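Supplementary material to the annual report.
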Amino acid sequence: MTNTASDTRRHRELTQLKTTHQVRQGQKQRFLDLVADVEAGRRSYVLADGTAPHELFEAGGLAMVTDVWYSGVVAAKRQSAHYSDVLAAHGYHHGLNRYHALGLGVMLDDDPDREKPWGGLPPPAIVVGRGRAAIEQIAHLHDVPYVVVETPTPDRIDTAWWRSDAAGWEIGEGSDRIDMMVAQYRDVIDAIEHVTGQAFDLRRLRRVLELVNALESEFRVIRDLLRTAPKLPVRLGEVLTQVMGLQWHRGTTWALEQARAFRAEVQERIEREDWVCPHERLRLMYIGEGLWQQTDFFSEFEDSHGVVFPRSNYLSFAADSYRRFGLQDPVRALASRYATFNSRMHLPPWGPAWAVEEALTHRIDGAILLEKGEGRLFIAEALERAGIPVLRLAADSVDGRRWDPQLVRDSVVQFLETRFDR
Amino acid sequence: MRTTLLTEAAEAAASGRFVVGYVGATVPRTLIEDTGALAVQLLPEPGRSSDLGDALVEPDAPRLVREVFSSVVEGDWQFLQLLVIDRSATLLLHYLREVVRAEHTDVVPPLWGYDVIPTSSDAVWAYNVEQVRRLRARLHSSVGRGDPEACSRGESLFARVAAARANGRLSGTHAYELALATTRIGGADEANTILAQLAEPDANRARLGIVSSAPLRTPRLHDAVEEAGWDVVWEDSGAELLRPQPTAGAPIDEIAEWSQRVAAPRHGHPFAFRNAELLALTPKDVDGVLIHLPLSDTLLGWDVPRVRALLAERSIASVVLTTGLDEIEPAELVDVLATLRG
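Predicted assembly:
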């Protein structure tokens, strides 16, 4: 399945914010510049997973590409099915998590006639991720170092972590677990220094983290605007595009300036009462990975049912989980963010408690949840217990072969027409 | 087999002996046995489900999580003094803790996470050693030091294995299963002895090894393997289980090193490292290897071509099966294995 002209046209028509266009163009240009520089030998880059300490690379002067972000680009180009087939042809099993593996498929594809998404991924200088990760195979493919960063299993029960993490991280995470992360980050810093030939600068890392704090604070303001505005001022598809595009460039002034422009544009739309759906009736919450191949899904039910999507994990996680104050030891502060991180979003007790809090503060009427994924059904159960109906979808957010648009549409319509009085 | 293990453990508990359960190959059974408690490993049970499991465990969760979760929340293991869960089953630990916290059930035994991290870098070593120290302290506070005489390592199970062998009807596959069960309730040395006694295979039957992310434990599929003329003589997860445990009273560092080493093949460099090592543990005369990567598994980056090349270097034929073993029809498995013969 590839993009058709009508898909592209509709996608453009649904984009209401000029800052969304800017982010799309900006992140693509930054990627194309990177590819050109790498291929010309002017720059090296790190390929890393979404939980790797990106700020270390930014501070160390290495460009960085995230495996899940690039998988999103492949999916948005609707080429995930093709690259899934490439993976299968090379012997990788069907259960491979596409969200992490599509970049590997792109690198393995040797069809000279196929235009790869945004020109493809060039060989990285180092790869950083967890053990058992698909990107480790990319390190093998290019015979470059693979630096493993594992996170300790969280053992503290804090069901209101979003209120305390930014400032109380030493107590919230536990010193022993942060110590272990810091020790691993020293290995990452050694690898960065080896590639760049320069000593790592802690002052620069502190500056990068300050920029990240400022970026995430902008996202907090935007989230508050979406929570409190009488109706939704910006489509979720655009929020996802902007937040993820900027998050992968966090720590740069470009990302911060774009976020400020994004916030200003949202405020202007609220002041003008320029709503996504003037006859808004139902506010739904989406829980799952980004529907990068189907971002227009979030606007499909506006006309027929008055449905809007004010909330997703991405903006709210940016708002609640990234900021760290107290940067005297910036490596330690950064390590504290990742010591638990994704568990906060998905796993019980952290994920369900947070989902309920988010649903209540966003005035959510119901939720659509991709049921495949760790902890998802605990979240569904907690929402239902809080009186919020949940539609469980057995779809894959990235693999185009496992997303049947008609089936999903029918399921949503049935959900809307049977679970709500309005 | 599972029923036997559960019965053994429940009987031991009923007779006043402390029983500690564990999930995951990195848990040092030695530490448990040093306290005088009986150590029993909880395993997936094909098809095991529960109302709570259906409601709360995602459909693509590993079988280990789904099935052990169901057996625990239904009270099968209520008699355990402690249930230790290692890093390979972190989800199970979180899910069980949550059903206790949310008061969904009150039959879950006390839980303990054993989080030895598989990377061999110096960075995580101190953390891993601390994990062993904490587990030992927790075991001693939960169980204390029991009567050494009580640590009998499941003699009755050994007796049944011996009887089964003596009657001459014990196939390689079933003996292998018995050997694995023995490691869980007894010790690796005894299991290795049983496997060594299989050194004289039936010349008419082929010897099959399995590289799998999920153990081949469905009886009807065992029967299908046998119908196809194969005996399972080696399985990768089994090889990990058969790595000798640290000796009783071993120092903390030695136990941490053992746990980290057992964990390492599951992570880090799955096939390059894992199979080179596993092949060294494999009987030299395996006739074929079934590489099993079920749809439900979410392990990433299994470099199948590399594994097959490693096997081919030793003139061992291999075949890949991606269907879940709970879903495949026995006749289909017979056909798959027939390609190995060719």
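Chain A touches chain B through 49 residues (CB under 8 Å).
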